[in-house]
Specification:
The complex is a heterodimer of chains A (291) and B (199). Chain A is mainly alpha-helical and 291 residues long. Chain A contains 9 helices and 4 strands, in the order H-H-H-H-H-H-H-E-E-H-E-E-H. Chain B folds into 3 domains: 69 residues, no CATH class; 48 residues, no CATH class; 38 residues, no CATH class. The chains are: A mainly alpha (291), B mainly alpha (199). At the A-B interface, helix 5 and helix 8 of A face helix 2, helix 3, helix 4 and helix 5 of B.
């Protein structure tokens, strides 16, 4: 009896060196549905099932030890996934999977094709849909969360470089400049409840046209469709920028223990911004240098 | 005498708080202890060129999206992203010279950027290095005015190599090490005078 139990226990344990996939890894050994077409260069095994080599392009990967695989991954970081390097892992997945059902709702798309506002998206942030004809004062917006936290349900508090650095209370002198900029440009630069800069200080959460464009809260930069977001283009400064940062990035990568990618791309199309950032107007609404 | 000492002491004590009040507050670039405090980027001086060239604040202060979710790590990345280093500044100020090629504009204290072998008596010791690789000097001495001022300048108003009165005392040094004179002066420079007046 003991021997039988021991044998059962041994059968349940993974063999030494056998590869176990994490629960987050794509399953292998599953059939490819007829509706799905594998991307060029990807092949299922003889039974029509996904194998390691389908995505990784390394023969007999499943027979190798975990340490060996880690080494292969380090050496071939760029193309460990076929066709790499992949800037976004999602792009690799959407070669086979349909992207559409996985898209997150963009609640900033607030006008339909006829330009009429749909109220559904308003309720993600407002408890009650505000009257567009008579925009309420700030205290009557009935937001579900304090204004400085309202974006964080969907967005990270580190959405872009220098976001964290800006989330602070500006000094008196800067607040005066902001008030002047609000008058000059006829915009609003709203601060959080404790007077701190938040996402909505620079970004308008409303699609152009939802609020009367003549109203300071409705005035904004909208060079691109909200669905598309901002547009970045390659810049001639990119190689100079990379050369500039190289040594510091190597040092930083050593400290953080992970690769850091920094590249300079030219911002050529903006949307949902209270003032243009590409020409520095938005920066100058708060910052001024006498030297 | 005692009265005089007392007055001096009182004056010193009285003057100190006033002096402290007048102390200049730290400028923005002096506050950047973690980011090359010796480097000064004159924002205002760049204002006009930035407007006309299309290079804006975002060139040095990028706001592009990041995948990092930890604020501290994101801040560490932003610190590097925000820090203009050699290549960006030098692409205009050194390489294509579309901007003034004067090191002191951004590096007010040259001692902080010059090589460590420059720290001690390098004006006297630089000869062999310069003879071996003149281009190395030109990495910083862009227009070579520092070289020209000593090696070629001959006006009497500015004497950088030899102090005043050197004409009278140069004989001793010239006899000790004649080759040293020859590093700048050709023989005719000596003969022009010594032919007339003798040794």
């Amino acid at each position: 009896m003991r021997t039988l139990l021991l044998l059962m226990l041994m059968a349940m344990l993974p063999s030494a060196g056998a590869l176990e996939l994490s629960s987050r890894h794509h399953p292998v050994g599953v059939g490819v549905p007829e509706t799905m077409k594998l991307s060029e260069g990807m092949k299922a095994d003889d039974q029509g099932q996904l194998a390691c080599s389908t995505c990784h392009g390394v023969e007999n990967l499943e027979k190798r030890k975990r340490e060996d695989i880690e080494e292969i991954r380090r050496r071939h970081a760029d193309d460990f996934l076929r066709g790499g390097p992949w800037k976004k892992l999602d792009d690799f997945c959407f070669q086979c999977h349909d992207e559409q059902p996985y898209q997150r709702l963009n609640i900033h798309v607030q006008l339909d094709e006829q330009g009429k506002p749909g109220e559904e998206n308003c309720k993600y942030c407002h408890r009650e849909v505000p009257d567009r004809k008579h925009p309420p004062k700030r205290g009557d917006l009935k937001l579900r969360l304090p204004v400085e936290r309202i974006c964080l349900g969907c967005h990270l508090n580190t959405p872009h470089l220098n976001a964290v650095e800006h989330s602070r209370k500006p000094e008196e002198e800067m607040r005066k400049r902001m008030a002047e900029a609000e008058k000059t440009h006829q915009i609003i630069l709203p601060l959080g409840e404790q007077g701190q800069v938040s996402c909505v200080t620079c970004h308008s959460p409303h699609q152009k046209g939802v609020i009367d464009p003549g109203h300071p809260a409705g005035r904004q930069v909208a060079e691109r469709p909200v669905e598309d977001g901002p547009d970045y283009q390659p810049s001639r400064w990119s190689p100079i920028y990379r050369a500039d940062k190289e040594a510091r990035l190597v040092e930083l990568e050593r400290t953080l223990g992970q690769p850091v990618n920094l590249d300079y791309r030219r911002l050529v199309g903006e949307v949902l911004m209270r003032l243009p950032a590409a020409d520095g107007s938005l920066c100058r609404a708060c910052h001024q240098f006498d030297d | 005498m005692r009265l005089l000492l007392l007055m001096i002491l009182l004056t010193c004590c009285w003057a100190q708080p006033g002096a402290a009040e007048k102390q200049e507050p730290e400028r923005w670039w002096e506050k950047r202890h973690r980011q090359k405090p010796e480097l000064y980027f004159p924002h205002k001086a760049h204002d006009k060129v930035m407007k006309t060239s299309g290079v804006t604040c975002l060139a040095c202060h990028p706001f592009s999206g990041i995948e990092e979710t930890d604020p501290e790590r994101a801040a560490a990345v932003a610190l590097v992203a925000n820090e203009p280093l050699k290549a960006i500044c030098h692409s205009c100020h050194v390489e294509d010279r579309s901007a003034p090629a004067q090191c002191r504009l951004c590096h007010p204290d040259p001692k902080k950027i010059w090589p460590r072998d420059h720290d001690f008596d390098y004006v006297r010791l630089h000869g062999p290095d310069a003879a071996r690789d003149e281009t190395a000097c030109q990495v910083c001495h862009l227009d070579m005015s520092d070289c020209i001022d000593c090696h070629f300048r001959r006006d009497a108003a500015v004497r950088r190599k030899h102090g005043p009165g050197y004409r009278l005392s140069h004989g001793l040094e010239a006899r000790m090490d004649p080759a040293q004179c020859g590093s700048c002066h050709n023989p005719s420079y000596c003969f022009d005078c010594h032919r007339e007046i003798g040794p």
